[in-house]
Design goal:
By secondary structure, the protein is an alpha/beta fold. Helix 5 packs across helix 6. Helix content is 58%, strand content 13%. The longest helix is centred in the middle third of the chain and has 16 residues. The model has no long low-confidence stretch (mean pLDDT 93).
Length: 133
């Protein structure tokens, strides 16, 4: 089982979020026990961008056993298709392209996505399995 990890879960765990940290950490442990953990460049950029010391954060991510699987053409094409359909269907610009890249990456490279943003991914990436904290 390959689980892609969303930035909200990683930030919950790394920051020790009072509201979501324990649930996200438990879901991350479950995902680890069931197989490999991966993430995309978008998530890595969002997480690293939240810290003053990127090298310290990348070491923490490595300790979690999180592998970076770079985005590729299949991810870009899938994200673009879903984004276009979303906008043509009246979707608001509140959703930005990185969210679509994260969902497309998980759909292409993983068996499921660990995220707290389940409503968005469930509605726009209907075939993508979700693991929720």
């Amino acid at each position: 089982m390959i689980t892609a990890i969303d930035s909200n879960v990683l930030l919950d765990v790394l920051t020790g979020s009072v509201e979501h940290g324990a649930q996200s950490a438990a879901a991350l442990r479950l995902a680890t026990s069931e197989g490999a953990l991966i993430t995309c460049t978008t998530v890595l950029a969002e997480v690293v961008g939240a810290y003053d010391q990127p090298s310290a954060v990348t070491r923490q991510l490595e300790r979690l056993g999180l592998d970076l699987v770079p985005d590729d053409r299949a991810v870009a094409l899938a994200a673009g298709r879903v984004y276009r359909a979303y906008r043509k269907g009246g979707g608001a610009r509140e959703r930005i392209l990185p969210d679509f890249l994260i969902g497309a990456h998980a759909a292409v490279h993983a068996d499921r996505l660990l995220t707290r943003d389940r409503g968005f991914y469930r509605s726009l990436f209907a075939k993508l399995k979700l693991l929720e904290p």
